[in-house]
Design goal:
Oligomer: single chain
Helix content: 55-70%
Order of helices and strands: HHH
Number of helices: 3
Number of domains: 1
Number of strands: 0
Distance between the termini: 48 Å
Radius of gyration: 28 Å
Shape: rod-shaped
Strand content: under 5%
Length: 100
């Protein structure tokens, strides 16, 4: 599940970067009139605001998924794994009395 979220996060990051770069007014020609300049800036601002809301939606999605994963109960280990995961006692540990 975490690897899937990492892949989704990476793909979304690449998308939002491309979407934002597309919105930037990298025009080689200069606008001749104020109306042209206003139209370019207005359309760019509209796309950038949409990109900001898409980023906020992604943050909200990650927050909800994170809370769901954090609140999920851990699956109990099978008896064979639980026995294998406990470290064996050292040979002399049972013979020594506990420290005062």
């Amino acid at each position: 599940m975490l690897k899937t979220l990492a892949v989704l996060r990476t793909a979304y990051l690449v998308f939002i970067i491309g979407y934002t770069v597309r919105a930037m007014p990298f025009i080689t020609t200069v606008a001749r009139t104020f109306d042209e300049q206003y139209a370019i800036c207005s359309s760019s601002l509209h796309v950038l605001v949409r990109a900001a809301w898409l980023a906020i939606a992604w943050i909200a999605f990650e927050t909800v998924v994170g809370w769901l994963l954090a609140r999920r109960k851990a699956a109990p280990l099978p008896a064979t794994q639980a026995a294998a995961s406990t470290p064996p006692a050292s040979p002399g540990s049972a013979a020594r009395p506990p420290p005062p």
